[in-house]
Amino acid sequence: MSSQTDTLSEEILKQLKEKGVSKESSLSQIETFKKGIPFTELLRPCTLGDGIENIGSEIDEYVSLFESKAPALKTIKFVPASGAASRMFKELLSISSRNGEVSKSDLIDEDSKDSNVFLVFIDNILKFAFYNDLKLAMDKDGHNIENLVQGGTYKEIANYTLGPDGLNYVNLPKGIIEFHRYGDKSRTAFEEHLVEARVYAKDGDRVSRVHFTVSPEYLNKVKDLLDKKKALYESDDVKLHISYSVQKPSTDTIAVDMDNKPFLDNDGAVVLRPGGHGALIENLNDLDCDIAFIKNIDNVVPDHLKPETYLYKKALGGYLLNIQSKMFNYMKKLDGGHSDELVESIAKFLNEELKIELPSGFNDLDSDKKIEFMLSKLNRPLRVCGVVKNVGEPGGGPFWIRDSKGQVSKQIVESAQVNLDSQEQTIAWESSTHFNPVDLVCGLKNYKGESFDLREYVDPDMGFISYKSKDGRDLKALELPGLWNGAMANWNTLFVEVPLITFNPVKGVLDLLRAEHQASI
């Protein structure tokens, strides 16, 4: 250990301590850089009947179960919302940052992806929910947006959409962008999540809880917005409890140089980088709740499309509660002793309902060893993941995998985790039938009502090493195991097919022109 500790000088240790990053985590991360992160071994994709359940015929039963049990539970809607809007507007920013006027004729002649996106944006500008605010901002400074559009000169339109003189969208979180229009009013993505929470995150005291994880620099802006808007979505029937957290600085990861030594910038300061959305397992762990619904900030729809979302959120919740009640009952029975019949029943439940592979020779183990194994599988967090049919969206999907210990399990896997140089692994990856839309319902307490320590169920071997540069020098950066990937790798996982209409992300500004995001006006 002394040689490892020598890797971190007294000055580096001092800097880490000031930032709240532990020596132990930094040393562990350096070891990860040295040994590398193994690829995830895909066995086969999860498919309907083989890892993915279709609950269509029982959906009413699961909805009824959720509605009957939810009043007695503390439920939270957990929304990762730290994404910056600049990514939504990258093509517009690319064009508008050029010197000189941005003209229609030049964009047509250029015929590039960026110019084409810009032209579609301008041609459809009246359809964006933020148009009225943009027009007001420009009118205030004497710019007539209609005349500029008609004249084919677009520089000021871009400046007022993206820059501080207008909407300032390039410097705001994505959740603050006005997504949907309702008559002469508009709603941001943050507000749409409040509307959703009223329906499926409500307890018996008629309180709906929503938790947003945001970037520190945006926290006050988000709070100011929702403090002003909250009352619009409350009534005698529903009160909203909104909470916030930021990614903990202690989850930042140490960067290293190409020799796996701590990377120091030109001022001699150790470089730390955000650990990615996997760091949010700490934020989720801090919440006191029975059930958490997890959904990304940009996956929302206007009101007329929400009923399908509500139906399947409740159904996923009911499906989780049904499985969870069986797990809890088995653990309570084991507390009172066991019989051969009970052991056999639990083994069948693990294998057939949780889809957990029993170890070879399980039937030859004595009762104590069998129970030890079964308790280790039963007494852990549970998640039900909605998955949609794969229609070519970038991102991960549900797979059967084998981990470094030889254990088989169901996991959400991203392409970066897969060795696509292997023909066998590429075939498995490309034969996937379903996609992960980040639509999770999580059971966070055990059968005694105690909160799990979610940090104990992370697989550190499911992180990701990337190559970056700083101060003209190459460095290696470590992204922690993703929130719904390695951070939940050792949970009990169930996949349920949900309709594609429940997945409507807004990655680029033109996604707001899709029919699903054009509210009835």
Summarize the structure.
The protein is of the alpha/beta class.
Structural notes for this entry:
By secondary structure, this protein is α/β, with parallel strands linked by helices. The chain folds into two domains: 2-84 and 176-517, Spore Coat Polysaccharide Biosynthesis Protein SpsA, Chain A (Alpha-Beta Complex); 86-171, no CATH class. 35% of the residues lie in helices and 18% in strands. It has 17 helices and 19 strands. Residues 1-5 have low confidence and may be disordered.
What's the structural blueprint in terms of helices and strands?
Blueprint: H1 2-6, H2 10-19, H3 23-35, E1 41-45, E2 47-48, E3 51-53, H4 59-69, E4 75-80, H5 90-96, H6 104-110, H7 113-123, H8 131-140, H9 145-151, H10 155-162, E5 178-182, E6 185-188, H11 189-200, E7 207-213, H12 219-229, E8 239-245, E9 253-254, E10 272-273, H13 281-285, E11 291-295, H14 306-335, H15 340-352, H16 367-378, E12 382-389, E13 397-402, E14 408-413, H17 423-430, E15 434-435, E16 439-443, E17 464-470, E18 473-479, E19 492-497
Helix pairs in contact: 4-14, 5-7, 6-7, 15-16
Average pLDDT confidence is: 93
Helical proportion, percent range: 25-40%
What's the total helix number? 17
Low-pLDDT parts are 1-5
The oligomeric status of these chains comes to: single chain
- Total strands: the figure is 19
| CATH topology-level fold name of the largest domain | Spore Coat Polysaccharide Biosynthesis Protein SpsA, Chain A
Number of domains: 2
Strand content: 15-25%
Q: Give the overall silhouette.
A: globular
| Helical/strand content category | alpha/beta
First and last CA, distance = 66 Å
- Biggest sheet features: 10 strands, mixed
How big is the Rg? 25 Å
Provide the CATH top-level class of the largest domain: Alpha Beta
What CATH architecture of the largest domain would you give?
Alpha-Beta Complex
| CATH homologous superfamily heading of the largest domain | Spore Coat Polysaccharide Biosynthesis Protein SpsA, Chain A
